[in-house]
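User: Structure please.
Assistant: Input sequence and predicted structure:
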Amino acid sequence: MKLHSHFFNNKIVWITGASSGIGEAVAFAMNKEGAEVIASAPFVDDLEASKAKVPIPERYHIFPLDLSQSDTINPVVQKVTERFGRIDILINNAGISQRSLILDTPVQNDRTIMEVNYFGAVMLTKALLPQMIKQGGGHILCTSSMAGVFGFPLRSAYSAAKHALHGFFESLRIECHHQNIKVSIIIGGRIQTAISLNALTGDGSAWGKMDDGQKDGITPQQAAKQILRGIRQNRHEIWIGGFELLMVVFKRLFPKLNYLISRKITPT
């Protein structure tokens, strides 16, 4: 099979949230370009179904991991490092979203979303960081969102967790620059994934439908191309999506205008 690029060939890449959506698309793209892919998600059946579709299955390795169960992270890290010896690229992609007003969101939902979206990424990163430094460097990424740059209705906990990722990983980039640790934050716009289907409502049940904005978004495969390009170019921020990403520019350059526009957005 002809490889599209030598950049990822023989790189060892660990991706969480790899059984669907952006994570699965990135895992497939990395696999196609010759990387050894470690795919993690909570359910082994979902991971097996993904592996059945990859271009090079012998370079696709399943390690189930539920980031909501923090005590399971270090044991999985130990198994992975014993098996592979190094991780060149870590993509903290796993996450859950939300569809509920602040007044209707119990604190337990805030904690659940923060546990997966923020603490899961932080714990996995901290567990692998010493090995990356010892091996002479690596690249760590996290998947954020436009909601990680500004607040958004019905997304208070999700937005808070994504904002927290920016603070942590920007600090990591500064602290570990001299140790050849590259850090990128993926800022996603509208992507056709199942994230809204599984989003938590106020009572803890799943939202169960794809938002209209997502239906009109780019495909996960298009997002994966943008992410791989951003990794090759070592971008601090990798923007994935379409024209909706202009709102990130508005927020930074014209915060008051962004606020006025945000108030007119249909929440779903």
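The radius of gyration is 18 Å.
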